[in-house]
Every structure is written in C-alpha cells, then in structure tokens.
Amino acid sequence: MKPAAMKTIWKFEMPPSWEISMPAGAEFLSIGEQHNKVCLWMLVDPEATDEIRRFAVFGTGHPVPDIPLRFLGSVQLFDGDLVFHAFERANEK
Predict the structure, then answer these.
(1) In this structure, are residues 30 and 38 in contact, taking their beta carbons and an 8 Å threshold?
(2) How many Å separate Cα 48 from the centre of its chain?
(3) How far apart are CA 89 and CA 28, in angstroms?
(4) Is 69 in a helix, a strand, or coil?
(5) Among candidate residues 22, 82, 83, 80, the one with its CA nearest the CA of residue 54
(6) Measuring CA to CA, which residue among 8, 93, 83 is closest to residue 54?
(7) What does the pLDDT look like over 47-81, one tens digit per residue?
(8) Domain assignments of the chain as residue spans, ordered by start
(9) What is the CA radius of gyration of the chain?
C-alpha cells in the first residue's frame, strides 16, 4: 500500500501586487506580519503541478479597483503605523 501524500505549509512574502506560481489547489491558511513584511501561509501539496495565483495588497485609504477580489485579512506593520489589506484576485480569462 502506497503511503498517503503529505502536504506542507509554505510561506510567501506579499509585495503590493503580484502573481505567484504555487502548487495547484494550495489552501489559504493565514496572513500576518513577519519581520515587517506581509506574509501569506498556504497548505500545499509539493507534488502538485504549479498554477498561477494572483494577489493584491492595499493600504488603508488607498483606492481598490472594482474587480473580483476575495478578502484574506488585514495586517499591521511598524507597530500599527501601516495597515494593509490583502486579497486574492479572481482568475482572469
């Protein structure tokens, strides 16, 4: 009997707007601050083929485009001096 596949938690640092290649079906776990950077943690199957996922981060008071977005969470940096709000962008065909 083949042992069950194992998943792994990966961290991705989030710049303001980006695309990242990650294993298909990666599951969002958490968003937070680490070393004054916005970071995203995903549960991934390292053996899955990669797919492109799109994310965006907006500061409080900054404009947010009217496009399909899924809110992931808000993160405070520099003792709350900056607050960012992270979203996953819908796949664009």
Answers:
(1) no
(2) 18
(3) 13
(4) strand
(5) 22
(6) 93
(7) 999 999 999 889 999 999 999 999 999 999 999 89
(8) 8-89
(9) 15
Instruction: State if pTM tops 0.90.
Output: no
CA distance 76 to 83: 4
Judge whether 76 and 37 are in contact, CB under 8 Å: no
Contact predicate 24/51, CB 8 Å: yes
Question: Within a 13 Å sphere around the CA of 5, how many CA atoms are in the beta-carbon half?
Answer: 8
pLDDT tens digits for 4-37? 778 888 988 876 668 888 999 999 999 999 998 8
DSSP 7-60: -EEEEEE--SEEEEEEETT-EEEEEEEETTEEEEEEEE-TTSPEEEEEEEEEET
Check: CB of residue 75 under 8 Å from CB of residue 87: no
Per the listing, tokens 């298909």 go with 24
